[in-house]
């Protein structure tokens, strides 16, 4: 058995088509996950569930146009221009709730104790904390047991399972939690869906995990809990280190600090230099990387740039997850803490004493950057990004510090979303009211202005 990210087994046809086209264009080969044929009996047993979910599926089809998905793919390609946010800012911790759904047979096959799931969450926390701290943490929010042989038999299976997911998740919102379906597939240890493949609140946004891969599980060599770490890597937007089965410089996993690797690793080659499927390229295979197929004992790291990308994709594609999981929800510091004097303060129309400014540190630094710069920067100084409402009601005549000139007639990033791929900016105009616009988040040169919530009553 192998770890498997490839969502072809769970993707609806229309998504799959887009995926195949995109890959065919770049000549990549698709690693196949299992796709067992169902018996007539199983299909009939499931028809009720499929029907019940037809309306939901219909809604999904309408809400995700091919263009949206394709656009997301293009964004992903362009994302190679991602900045080194990890180096520039202190990324705040996100504490992500996990919901486990144990889908087991009535005779007990596939049943696992809660303690094993708790151990799995502990492994997630361990792996995402070091050697490079991703700032991503996890806690078990709910464990749901589903004692249903017919559902268990659909584990990881194509269309029926898509419908079944709505039933299994039972109203829990995938946009605000990581949903892990623990069930036995005969073909793979795990399957995840990439963040750009479906809307963030869609039931597709969940991971399938084989119970034998849990810490202490029965699948030899793959029972230390690293399969979920690997699948979560996909869920946060990472490809395999051998993506595209190519040594090409322009394809592969798009990660700068993983060496070119053509094929998945099996076992744990020793010495490690002996594994080198792209001998004419620098470095040897990434056999210790979580995004390879080596055994659990062999893998122990994400690279720096994998971490940068995971955080980037999470803010980009899962804004609600970041908000729900952000440990510091508003600004941890008040205006006074940040040294933003009342003179620099901007009192929001709501009178909550919001203060905003664009000056940083001791110097007269006035920052511009892309949306992610604004997001990470505001977080790292203990403030937060301003909402469009706050900026729209900002007293532009007031003293907003030494960056006042910079702010005039400039676009300021806000927390608001226009659509999946665009973020709202507010243009602060001279002698005219501010105006809201939309632009792609990776565009540079929006002005960075942060807000803080002053608890002082004035
Ligand atoms: C699952 O259901 C079957 C029959 O419906 C029952 O005999 C069995 O005890 C249940 N198992 C668990 C773990 O609840
Ligand atoms: C956490 O679990 C509770 C109880 O099952 C559920 O109602 C809630 O939706 C879950 N929270 C998230 C964020 O999934």
TrEMBL record:
Every Peptidase M43 pregnancy-associated plasma-A domain range? 189-311
| Keyword Protease part of the UniProt annotation | yes
The GO molecular function terms of this record are:
metal ion binding; metallopeptidase activity
The UniProt keywords, alphabetically, are: Disulfide bond, Hydrolase, Metal-binding, Metalloprotease, Protease, Signal, Zinc
Write down the superkingdom of origin: Eukaryota
Q: Which residues form the signal peptide?
A: 1-27
Among InterPro entries, the record links this protein to:
MetalloPept_cat_dom_sf, Peptidase_M43
A single BP term in Gene Ontology? proteolysis
The answer to whether the entry has keyword Protease is yes
What family, per the record?
Belongs to the peptidase M43B family.
Quote the protein name from its UniProt record: Peptidase M43 pregnancy-associated plasma-A domain-containing protein
Organism field = Salpingoeca rosetta (strain ATCC 50818 / BSB-021)
Which taxonomic lineage does the organism of this UniProt entry have? Eukaryota, Choanoflagellata, Craspedida, Salpingoecidae, Salpingoeca
């Amino acid at each position: 058995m192998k770890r498997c990210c490839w969502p072809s087994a769970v993707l609806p046809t229309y998504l799959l088509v887009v995926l195949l086209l995109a890959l065919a264009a770049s000549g990549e080969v698709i690693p196949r996950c299992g796709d067992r044929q169902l018996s007539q009996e199983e299909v009939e047993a499931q028809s009720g569930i499929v029907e019940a979910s037809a309306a939901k599926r219909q809604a999904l089809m309408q809400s995700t146009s091919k263009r949206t998905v394709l656009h997301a793919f293009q964004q992903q390609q362009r994302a190679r221009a991602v900045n080194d946010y990890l180096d520039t800012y202190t990324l705040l911790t996100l504490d992500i709730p996990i919901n486990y759904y144990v889908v087991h047979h009535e005779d007990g096959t596939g049943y696992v104790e809660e303690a094993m799931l708790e151990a799995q969450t502990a492994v997630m926390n361990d792996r995402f904390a070091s050697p490079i701290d991703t700032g991503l943490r996890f806690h078990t929010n709910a464990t749901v047991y589903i004692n249903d042989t017919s559902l268990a038999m659909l584990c990881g299976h194509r269309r029926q399972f898509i419908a079944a997911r709505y039933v299994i998740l039972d109203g829990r919102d995938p946009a605000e939690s990581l949903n892990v379906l623990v069930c036995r597939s005969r073909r793979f240890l795990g399957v995840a869906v990439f963040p750009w493949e479906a809307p963030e609140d869609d039931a597709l946004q969940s991971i399938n995990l084989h119970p034998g891969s849990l810490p202490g599980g029965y699948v030899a060599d793959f029972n230390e809990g690293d399969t979920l770490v690997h699948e979560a890597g996909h869920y946060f937007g990472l490809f395999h280190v051998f993506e595209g089965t190519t040594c090409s410089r322009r394809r592969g996993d798009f990660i700068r600090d993983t060496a070119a690797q053509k094929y998945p690793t099996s076992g744990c080659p020793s010495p490690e230099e002996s594994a080198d499927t792209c001998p004419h390229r620098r470095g040897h295979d990434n056999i210790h990387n979580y995004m390879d197929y080596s055994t659990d004992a062999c893998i122990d790291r994400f690279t720096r740039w994998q971490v940068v990308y995971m955080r980037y994709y999470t803010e980009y594609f899962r804004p609600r997850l970041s908000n729900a999981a952000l440990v510091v929800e508003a600004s941890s510091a008040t205006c006074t803490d940040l040294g933003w004097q009342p003179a620099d303060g901007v009192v929001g129309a709501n009178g909550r004493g919001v203060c905003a400014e664009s000056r940083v540190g001791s110097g007269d630094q006035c920052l511009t950057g892309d949306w992610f710069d604004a997001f990470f920067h505001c977080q790292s100084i203990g403030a937060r990004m301003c909402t469009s409402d706050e900026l729209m009601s900002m007293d532009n005549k007031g003293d907003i510090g030494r960056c006042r000139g910079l702010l005039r007639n400039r676009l300021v990033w806000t927390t608001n979303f226009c659509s999946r791929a665009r973020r709202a900016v507010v243009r602060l105009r001279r002698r005219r009211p501010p105006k809201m616009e939309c632009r792609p988040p990776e565009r540079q040169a929006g002005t960075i202005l942060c807000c803080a919530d002053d608890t002082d009553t004035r």
